[in-house]
Amino acid sequence: MASATKPSSVAKFTELPKEGKFGEFGGQFVPEILMPALRALENDYLSIRTQARFQNELKALRTDYCGRPTPLYFARRLTEYAGGARIFLKREDLLHGGSHSINNALGQALLARELRRSRVLCATGSGEHGLATAMACVLLELQAEIYMGAADIERHATTVEQMKLLGARVHAVTRGSQRLKDATHEALRAWVTHLQDAYYLIGSSVGPHPYPLIVRDFQRVIGDEIKGQLLRREQRLPDLVVAAVGQGGSAIGTFFPFVQDEKVRLLGVEAAEAASLTQGTVGVFHGAKTYLLQDEHGQVQPTHSLAAELDYAAVGPEHAFYKKLGRAEYIAVSGREALEGGRLLAELEGILPSLEAAHAIYAGVQRAKKLKRDQIVVITLSGRGEKDLRLYYDRQQLSGQAV
Amino acid sequence: MASATKPSSVAKFTELPKEGKFGEFGGQFVPEILMPALRALENDYLSIRTQARFQNELKALRTDYCGRPTPLYFARRLTEYAGGARIFLKREDLLHGGSHSINNALGQALLARELRRSRVLCATGSGEHGLATAMACVLLELQAEIYMGAADIERHATTVEQMKLLGARVHAVTRGSQRLKDATHEALRAWVTHLQDAYYLIGSSVGPHPYPLIVRDFQRVIGDEIKGQLLRREQRLPDLVVAAVGQGGSAIGTFFPFVQDEKVRLLGVEAAEAASLTQGTVGVFHGAKTYLLQDEHGQVQPTHSLAAELDYAAVGPEHAFYKKLGRAEYIAVSGREALEGGRLLAELEGILPSLEAAHAIYAGVQRAKKLKRDQIVVITLSGRGEKDLRLYYDRQQLSGQAV
Amino acid sequence: MIVSNYLAKRFEELQRRQEAALVAFLMAGDPDLPRTLEYARAVEGGGADVLGLGVPFSDPIAESPTLEEAAHRALRHGVHLQDVLQIVRELRKSSTIPILLLSYYNPILRLGEEAFARRCSEANVDGVLIPDLPIEEATSWVNQARKYGLARIFSATPETGDERVKQICEFSSGFLYLVSRYGATGAREALAETALPLIERVRPLLPSDLKLVVGFGISTRPQIESVVRAGADGVMVTSALVARIAEGISPEALSAYVRELKEATRCPSPAPS
Amino acid sequence: MIVSNYLAKRFEELQRRQEAALVAFLMAGDPDLPRTLEYARAVEGGGADVLGLGVPFSDPIAESPTLEEAAHRALRHGVHLQDVLQIVRELRKSSTIPILLLSYYNPILRLGEEAFARRCSEANVDGVLIPDLPIEEATSWVNQARKYGLARIFSATPETGDERVKQICEFSSGFLYLVSRYGATGAREALAETALPLIERVRPLLPSDLKLVVGFGISTRPQIESVVRAGADGVMVTSALVARIAEGISPEALSAYVRELKEATRCPSPAPS
Ligand SMILES: Cc1ncc(COP(=O)(O)O)c(C=O)c1O
Ligand SMILES: Cc1ncc(COP(=O)(O)O)c(C=O)c1O
């Protein structure tokens, strides 16, 4: 079980990172060429984020375009199965595009438009973030430039087709491992050469300040809604909030609104095959100090999660901070366990989760078993699972009958 | 342009069909063996439909599980493109499962549970209705038995995998053309032999009375929500409401709440390759009198729409009634035009519609062009388009640059 | 009310002989029209009392797979209503066997009920069974059938309550077709458990001028014997014949099979109406 | 403030000779360690004034593809920081050329800033350039570098405003590395338009003890000549060398190429600081 939050730790949280840092984590470890752009982004964003006009437009598009608020669904059968705490699912899988990605992509695209940028650059691994970015760009009349490793393009061909149908330019990156990190480097190169007219749209709460702040601001709607919905429905806060952690965007959006609520425990679930918080050490990667999977030389290690969006060697710096403080607990769940969790949800609730979210489902159910019937667990169901159908299905075929 | 509704015609609408008929259409053209079951279903349903407990449970699941209400989205760029009436989209594509199908499947599955049936039978063509049925059955702890033509199973393999993951039994029908009609016949055979414990769940507003009524009751939430949302937002009713018509479920759900509003014009859009209302003649098919594509001998004609769910030789009897009365106008849109409409929506709004819904988009945009800027067109966006990606993409590749 | 002569006469004759009627159904046009004619003559030669001809329809619902597939084969040869009537006319040249048509409603609706009734009558069809036309939808058809002297064959099933059986009888003429088992048609070895109690239940509800013919799943002598002993005035054999034709049985062998079944109708009925 | 001896001396010497410095960078371990040693000696032999060695890192951001690929090749041979220091020690046996290391921050952080600084100092490294360590994150590093007598090379770019240039200069020692063009590093034929005005703008902002070295995209004599004429104290050549090594150039040919570039640094600078 998670150790309860140390009371003192809560005091350390501030809404805005101090000097770009969450405790010792975060910061701006980037080449000098990017510093003025980041500084300007920070200044612009800090003034825009509180503008009513901006917030109203964002809210309207979230509601009418994305489908917010998403339901907080009481999973009756899953609860009966676990036999412990009541389990609620935050249905981010119902959003436009099929995952929480659009929360962030739309927010940042709106920001890009406010900043009068005409092009939006992004790097994507499985294509999920790229697709969300393409959608938001269409909506706001921006040109999306999607950088994607050639190997990833092959693996996720249908997502790429969708992005192209949406008018995005997809740049195949044939360097290196031809995967997300190579795409990231290529996208950064493109940004550096177009700082004036391009906006670089990071897909999760990673990267240099102010990106982790920006992404958390756009994802916190998840936790804010959970809180409001649960208070309205049950007149109380949850006992435990669970979210999958890849780079950590949906999880930080889920956790942040509860950080000051000392009694609400927070559980972040990593893929065991890419568990930077539970198996990594402190390092600097892609612009921020955080937990990182690295060897003794400080070289970044390859990861091997079946869940494309969890397959990342580091994690957002705010999670590193929460871990260090003991404010959130982080555990790792294997791909096999996640598949089991996903199948369980399909068979009990008729919902096939993304394999990423299935990590949280698995862990959340395990924890719910050990909690009392009058307790409440909320799990963020961050995406839908059609994209992972093949993995689920092949595995089911292998193991004969399902769970 | 649609001829305005004749004032007198509105008087003819009653909420419940009289003696199982909408005007001359509908009825119960089924073998005697089914008559007692239909009679019992009618009686049971008429008493259940007004029960607060039933309605409350349905409402709760619609909200928390399916994601209702769905947004009514003002399509700014599509409106600008058309340059005429303002276009709103009813976002049924955001529902659990990706289309309006769950509205009906969930309602009927709840009904099946009320009737203490343990098994739910259904026939499905593209698998969309089967998947929605499988989801609803998981939720309500019913055994889903899905009948599907072997040819359709091959064509829609991933949907079949999803249904299986959800624990549905999928029965491959190897007879005849191995498609929807063969699956329907096989499912009916199964029903006839299990009248006591099985519920036959029809996927759209077709079949013998009381099915068209039941399906309309469960789909009218679409139109009811449109009405409420538009009144709240614009303090007025739409000038034109547009929906795609396959068997006609989503369209009847869209239209029905506006039937008595004489000034609201209704436009149903068929696939030109399966246009029973615009090219058919009156006949009897699958239990109801309606418009039907048939030859001079009364044999039912094969249809050839690219849009799997529009590929049906007949249409729900209530549409036949609306057509005959002139209350709704029905037009046909070709597959090529629909692909164009779908691509347009993708490129202007970042939303890829199901190819079925794309028929409505195309027609709605054409009409909006001819209307005034202070008028309002609402189009039901009945499903999302991932399933049709290949068709869109291949076509785009063929025609080089998109629209 | 006019009842077609051949059918009524045949039942009278059978009653005199203390036999039940063997109603033998074929799918017209399966495998093709000339062979339907041959098989029809073979069936008659084997001693069938009534000949039924199915009119092929593209979308028969709740039909046995055997009949559905036979209909599709016939349709592939372009066999439609007028061809079936042509067969009837052909047969009529040399036979007075009562002939029934079984047709789904849509081909009839397409032609028009009256036109259909008239043509049947002109071709000397004796009666018509429309499987997807329950009594609720049958008022106008019954009027046409009356006008043109066609027997109106409706069905009752184990699902049909007593009141409804009586209502159906009011719409019927010639005989009531009792579907003896749950489920769609198709030959089964054993007679459904529901058959005999069903006959016992329904028998007393029939008016005296309406015969009771039992069908669905009948293919053997013992089945026929027990049905007849339970009080049926006749049995209808359909899928058993159509299936044999699908397997390419010779007309002679079909004739022999029918003869064997006909034998079974000669067992004494306990309570002749 | 201690500045490494070799580097400061070399700049003094060059100033006396009215030459600009040629800073030649290689990726250590590409294609392998022995050949890095050979190429380094060839570069020195060709007249380079300062030798730079890149420490391979798995994830260099905003780096030229040329350098990224070179780093990956080196990593495939398992070349890490300690191996690079080994090369430095090897070179030091016979040479007093000023040696700079270029390393991303994470390998340094992993080892510990102090341990890294100490080891560099022990190996007689003259200075360190950490491309992803802007001044905001550099306070503790600067303290270590000071303590161990390492030159602290920071960058300025066309994006860097005057105020910030001044701040950067306060953190720097040895020279300010001026990135002459937008975009990531990589050899380009033409010198970016931004280079010359940039030099003109930045030059007056530098304290007198800080040299100005211009780089990114330099590969030809004319480029060097115009940069030197605009007031640079040196030029840095990186991708041009790494690319040639990737193509398998011989050490002799590389030496000749460096000699040619070095020629260009001897054109008279208009305003020696
Ligand atoms: C569909 C989907 N995408 C991505 C992620 C990972 O998001 P992040 O990298 O922001 O943690 C998740 C996490 O649960 C997910 O379910
Ligand atoms: C996804 C989807 N499925 C099915 C249909 C057809 O539904 P129905 O047959 O009920 O008219 C539509 C109609 O627009 C649709 O968009």
What is the compact description of this entry?
The complex is a heterotetramer, with 2 copies of chain A (403 residues) and 2 copies of chain C (273 residues). Chain A has 403 residues and is an alpha/beta fold.
Q: What would your notes on this structure say?
A:
The complex is a heterotetramer, with two copies of chain A (403 residues) and two copies of chain C (273 residues). With 403 residues, chain A is an alpha/beta fold. Chain A has two domains: 20-59 and 101-215, Rossmann fold; 69-98 and 220-399, Rossmann fold (3-Layer(aba) Sandwich), CATH 3.40.50. Chain A has 17 helices and 14 strands. Chain A has helices at residues 7-11, 35-48, 52-66, 76-82, 101-114, 128-140, 150-155, 157-165, 180-193, 211-219, 221-234, 249-255, 276-279, 317-325, 335-349, 355-370, 389-398, and strands at 21-22, 25-26, 72-74, 86-91, 119-124, 143-149, 169-173, 198-200, 240-244, 265-271, 281-285, 288-292, 328-333, 376-381. In chain A, the strands form four sheets. Chain A has a six-stranded mixed β-sheet, sandwiched between helices. In chain A, strands 7-6-5-8 form a four-stranded parallel β-sheet, sandwiched between helices. The two termini of chain A are 25 Å apart. Chain C has an eight-stranded parallel barrel with strand order 1-2-3-4-5-6-7-8, surrounded by nine helices. In chain C, α10 packs parallel to α12. The radius of gyration of chain C is 17 Å and the shape is globular. Residues 183-187 of chain C have low confidence and may be disordered. The interface between A and B is large, with 42 and 43 residues. The complex binds pyridoxal-5'-phosphate (2 copies). One pyridoxal-5'-phosphate is lined by residues 99, 128, 204, 244-251, 309, 354, 356-357, 382-383 of chain A.
